[in-house]
Amino acid sequence: MRLAMIGLGRMGANIARRLMRGGHEVVAFNRDPAAVTQLAGEGAIGANSLEDVVAKLTAPRIFWVMLPAGAPTQDTVDKLMELSEPGDIIIDGGNSFYKDDIKCGAAARDKGLHYIDVGTSGGIWGLERGYCMMIGGDKEIVDLLDPIFDTLAPGYGSIVRTIGRDAPDSRAERGYIHAGPTGAGHFVKMVHNGIEYGLMQAYAEGFDILKGKSSERLEPDERFDINLTDVAEVWRRGSVISSWLLDLCAIGLARDPMLEQFTGQVSDSGEGRWTIDAAMEEAVPAYVLSAALFARYRSRVDHTFGDKLLSAMRFGFGGHVEMPQ
Amino acid sequence: MRLAMIGLGRMGANIARRLMRGGHEVVAFNRDPAAVTQLAGEGAIGANSLEDVVAKLTAPRIFWVMLPAGAPTQDTVDKLMELSEPGDIIIDGGNSFYKDDIKCGAAARDKGLHYIDVGTSGGIWGLERGYCMMIGGDKEIVDLLDPIFDTLAPGYGSIVRTIGRDAPDSRAERGYIHAGPTGAGHFVKMVHNGIEYGLMQAYAEGFDILKGKSSERLEPDERFDINLTDVAEVWRRGSVISSWLLDLCAIGLARDPMLEQFTGQVSDSGEGRWTIDAAMEEAVPAYVLSAALFARYRSRVDHTFGDKLLSAMRFGFGGHVEMPQ
Amino acid sequence: MRLAMIGLGRMGANIARRLMRGGHEVVAFNRDPAAVTQLAGEGAIGANSLEDVVAKLTAPRIFWVMLPAGAPTQDTVDKLMELSEPGDIIIDGGNSFYKDDIKCGAAARDKGLHYIDVGTSGGIWGLERGYCMMIGGDKEIVDLLDPIFDTLAPGYGSIVRTIGRDAPDSRAERGYIHAGPTGAGHFVKMVHNGIEYGLMQAYAEGFDILKGKSSERLEPDERFDINLTDVAEVWRRGSVISSWLLDLCAIGLARDPMLEQFTGQVSDSGEGRWTIDAAMEEAVPAYVLSAALFARYRSRVDHTFGDKLLSAMRFGFGGHVEMPQ
Amino acid sequence: MRLAMIGLGRMGANIARRLMRGGHEVVAFNRDPAAVTQLAGEGAIGANSLEDVVAKLTAPRIFWVMLPAGAPTQDTVDKLMELSEPGDIIIDGGNSFYKDDIKCGAAARDKGLHYIDVGTSGGIWGLERGYCMMIGGDKEIVDLLDPIFDTLAPGYGSIVRTIGRDAPDSRAERGYIHAGPTGAGHFVKMVHNGIEYGLMQAYAEGFDILKGKSSERLEPDERFDINLTDVAEVWRRGSVISSWLLDLCAIGLARDPMLEQFTGQVSDSGEGRWTIDAAMEEAVPAYVLSAALFARYRSRVDHTFGDKLLSAMRFGFGGHVEMPQ
């Protein structure tokens, strides 16, 4: 199929490449034209404006928007809605908030357009491994786009089949699902990222405890000096906690056993927060996912005002003066 | 009554003073003799060794040990057990681990001695306000010591009587209880301190959120610039969250609204940790109390190794490079 | 002053009573006229419709709306905006979401009206103790309404003055503050309630640990059988964790030591959730306040689907079959 | 090599089988002789008492103890120490507390014996996949036993090599490590299980949020009805959160999409608790791992006393009567 890829950052460019390798024609557009030139050199049809993108597609046009969530995505979707004709299809493949999708979907419907939200996991490894996709929108459009999703997905690969699985729809086993109506794709992807935060924090705390076992806080005869790089490696083999994130821990620790290149200030994107929002709307307890998010917040400040207030209270009742330790 | 006060730190000296004000005779001992001299000047009988303490008491001797938990208390109790005669009474008024009390109590019993554990709350305010005491040990000895506890406790004071309370034992209303057998006093005090951590952290987080409302992370029109000193003050008046700890927040904020004198590194003593230990032994979920303890741990390091591991994973899957913010 | 009280539930009726006791004239309105009749019998001017309320006030009219947050408050405020004349003042004294206040305030301004948000703490005790109030809105209107706030607030009472406090504005010490522009009152009240959740959960966990010490999970010689009613009482006296909420624990336990009248399913209103929302917007870690909220969510379900998924995983890797315990 | 397998439960029997497949001779013993008969039928040398086990081995004897942690393991190790001769080797392959290992190791050393602790992960899948092993003890003994560990471990298999790994010791890549001195093996395994709890809870909360999106708590137009079985499946393919535990979720959900066979009461073994103990000794914040443990505690009670105390406080300040919902 021919489709446009709008946004040629790390994710967008690689998605375009995987599509081209799969025999699709990609009209490539990016705000910075250097990325367009690059991708045109690899076989894409370069475009120099959204209008040009529109001109280089035929109805029903397919636009895959792969931009940062929020204003960049919203502004582009809005512009595409103006330039499109009834029957055209806008795919938001980024990390948009699912409630924004629902609004965009309604706006698109009003203009006779189709709007599809695709939550895409796979990171910089997706070009080779394929992308895991969670798709929201109308069934007939999701079906129409199937050749695209089929190309992007990992496929069966060498992954062992789930025991007991006996579902007529093979898409999940090939790496993509039609999660539900507009917004459902990004909703599932949002929870995916919420879980990701929790998993990452579980490993982080575990390795912290392993490392702490050599700390001077303990008596010398209570200490173990554990090789964390080897621990990460061995857990990849036959253990209950093997995972792709653990593979990444092993890579990171093999490269830099003390992780000295990192400051320890950890960013968060919207999904972790939105996942907690969803938990609160549903009255679902989310102790671990929220704690994982807060750990990132905490990592970005030296000391909280609250910490100082604790000291003020301790000074108040016990005359304790907190000293740097 | 005549009793010995062993350990004349902030707590021990004030307890001795309150006892003397109440008409008791105090034999005062401290490793550093300056404190003995000071207290002797206020009416106490100074002693220059534990042997001297023993000599200045008459059977049954009453020793109140008011020393830091762990080795200082344990060593003194051990020595007193050697110097004592059957029928003598050792009171541990510090913050000992209740399981250590149980061991000490058994050892004392083997020697015909009595061992009483007293959890004491009140801090530097206790001299004036009186001390809240949670007492463990044999009933007859607790009863024998009643004049001491009665003097130290706050008494009815001006505190409004609890609606519906109709208990024959008035001691709780006067500020002390016989909590149970040896160890029960410090167990209740331990949980008291565990709760204290949780309460303090709840205020800390709340004030952090009030303060964060003025942060540059928010858009200018989303910010409020709230006077935290006034908020602490007003909540003391008729609100659901008024408390003595809030009074201390109000004092601390009145003195230093930005709390600039504090680094934000917060110490913890053993009780918070032991409370979580107890919760785990009992299989009781203690989300809040553990989180309050961990907040203190976290306050004492710049960045955890775990935080860096999060960054290493993020770099691994997304090529994200975490930047100082 | 003359003002209208709209909404004569537990809070509204008592606020009206305290105002009348203070010499103010109250026009009382409620959807269910029985409450109007009741309050008219106590000296209020009854009204049988919002139109009637308007007619019984003189410009500038003062409307105090005391209704459940959300639709009940919003609908009434909307209606009052239609019926009012420029210069009239609408006070929302309920537990509205502060972002809704900001919208209402802007709408009021467009019509030449004044909108004031008052977060009110004190519960059913406020009639006697007075109400702690956190007020948002324009300074001149807050000043104009001062006689009302002054009457409702607890006043200095017998509360000890905060050491070191030296602020020109005495309102905080009398129990109310002008927290900032529209929305700031309810924002501060929201955080107040978030803290309240955290404080309550800290006590809840602590008493759970005390109670768990008698559980059959422990060996008989590890158990203590602690009198929780007495513990709550004694902590009211000179301890670091004395508070008004603890007073309520003491009352509850004195009345029903096993708390058998309660199922253990705990409701939450919006403030706890909004506080976490605010923390997430500000990137403030709120471990304790969120855990306190989640404990309530968890209390309302028998078992989570997530719990079952844990069992499914355990069965998957270890063949464990989870049995009722 | 010839060695004894003591304890032929699910784990012990399969470890024995994998050893025999690898050419080792196994003397098999179990309290219940049926398991011995079964394994003898598969080629093992049956033994009918620990004395018989000793008789059927030659010096230096190798005993692999594979029993539940605590008394069963301890009693057997104690007995073996009596029956052994200097130079014999006792391996504890179960889930013992690492501090118990340290005591056992010292006792063994006093008798001229060797004690090795092996943390073993792999569950009922280990027979086919191999076991991930974390080993503590003296280097020369660990080296001596290498043929055994080599057979039990998964080996390189088809797992992709860690990018950047360049370590001389290939054991980690083949699935086992010498973690350090006595106790270090079980310490690393303990943290492994602590992480396992955290990972499991992260998935549990995520799926709870997905499921909650269809709850009646939400307005009909806010709901999504998401196929959880398909979500688990698709996340196995190219997503950031793919893992072996997720594979197990997929299996469990494929078999029983509503997980109706499970009550939702989740057991915990010692390791989760000990991991938190270790975190507390090291002053490492472990928010997520502790919350994961507490979720299991909470799953095993209908309502906590603490929940009821929350209701009692709410009744106290607001007159709220909590109703079943």
Automatic annotation (TrEMBL), chains A, B, C, D:
Species, as recorded: Sphingopyxis alaskensis (strain DSM 13593 / LMG 18877 / RB2256) (Sphingomonas alaskensis)
EC code: 1.1.1.44
SMART domains per the UniProt record, alphabetical: 6PGD
6-phosphogluconate dehydrogenase C-terminal domain location: 185-304
Transmembrane segments: none
One of the record's GO molecular function terms: NADP binding
Family stated for the protein in its record: Belongs to the 6-phosphogluconate dehydrogenase family.
Pathway participation: Carbohydrate degradation; pentose phosphate pathway
Record protein name field: 6-phosphogluconate dehydrogenase (Decarboxylating)
GO process terms (BP): D-gluconate metabolic process; pentose-phosphate shunt
Keywords assigned by UniProt, alphabetized: Gluconate utilization, Oxidoreductase
Taxonomy, superkingdom: Bacteria
The keyword Oxidoreductase is annotated on this UniProt entry: yes
